[in-house]
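I am still getting used to backbone structure tokens and would like to learn alongside you. Label the sequence line and the structure token line clearly, so we can match residues to local backbone shapes. Would you write everything just below, so we can both look at the same thing?
***
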Amino acid sequence: MTEFKLKIDHFDQVHVLGPENGIDGAPNFRQVSGFPIFGCAQPTQIGFPAVLEKVPKGTVEKPVKTIWYNMRQEPVIYCNGDPFAPRHPERMHDNMSIDGSVSEMDKLEESFTEIVKARFMNDPEKKLKINKDSEFTENPMERENIEETLEVDTVESFSGVISDLQNKNLNLMRVPVVEESAPREVCFDILIDSLKQEPAGTQCVFSCQAGRGRTTLGMIIACQVKEILICTELRKMAEIGLVPKATAEDLIKQKFEFALPKGQDDDDPFIKGEFDVIKELLDKLPSAKEGKAKIDRLIDICGPGPKGTGLQNLRTCIIETKWKYDVAPEDRQVAWKQMILNFMERYFYLICFATYAQEYGPQGFEKSFVSWMDEHSKLRKMIEHGKDKLEWYRQVDPAKLNTLKDLMNAPNYKENMPTIIRTIYEFAFITYADLPRGPIKNNSMRKLAAKTLLEILPAEISTKVQERLDEQGANPDFVTLIGLVSFYGQD
């Protein structure tokens, strides 16, 4: 860790939930509707007490317990009250990934804190070199790192910063999850074990770097555990006659089964998560159908509006990232593809967890999720071999492509240009007919239209057009291409 560099957690566009969710020092703060479950990005030192002020505290006689879940595997340290994380010098845009227990990660964090303190103390001017991105881009392959120098007054670990706030009503817990990845099976058990004996009113606050994927993951799992515990308790009360059975069931429906707003793409099979490996899971494990229905609802509630209050939908992000992959240059597709595979695996494991929880939750989660997965070990192989079963390359209509080539190769191709342009647009629209309306679909169609036109151009025109594009250093925009083709085709 001595060579690892410091990179600041926050960036210009880290807060995306609007001013109504703004807390100074804790971007993307929100609560899951109907649950005492909250989430946010990594707080600054002043952000911790600001969040705890927003979270209900109960009364002096009956204070409410809060568990703060650090959903990050990597160490987090604070310089002048701002959060930083270590990055490998050759992988500045990737959070570190290392197998280790919670206690090992805690020790690593303390060790790295001492390393940074030594850098700071050994510098005559008490300065540290820190790193940040020049601007935010979603694809890490498009980010540019900038190194700066920071005058430092204080250096503390995550646990050191929050230790002053900890008391019998506030506990800190680490759940070591790697960014944009499926959690290890033991991470599910860490969350389950921390909640299964807690009263329903115990509050949970989840945080990760931006408060996005890992925070949302923890919120979904906590919602599932709490829902099962509350439903089980209500039904037990009905069994012993404390409340009428009909009343208990009505309460469950009102709290956990109310209708969510409908979206225009809700019927799209990929938006619904109907991928090949997921369909295989439902076929081989019939009880997973109920598990999928339960976890899909919680994924929606913990995701963006209008159904939820969060940042990322852990189901729809799979196909949404695939759309970005489709329109990205080939040299940028690598990062998108790895995200898609990770998101698919994460969603698969969430369905497995929900299936396990429906079976063992009502009995108090006596069996661990790791043990359940050991009994269903074929599921591990299923997702490992099945997460890549996607159409990575768009299948174009060869008949339409041949028609375009014939029109372009005809002696009177200039007269055919209006028909060629219209046919190319139809070609692009049909190829991306499955994408919902919006900028991603529009960009996909424009990119395919440009690529198609370049592919069918006569050689003498194509050479001149390509030379001109190379001179401009421009990507082939369709409208620009039409202009170039018209210009070079004058002779």
The first helix runs from residue 47 to 54. The mean pLDDT is 89. DSSP finds 17 helices and eleven strands in the chain. Residues 129 and 149 are 5 Å apart (CA to CA).
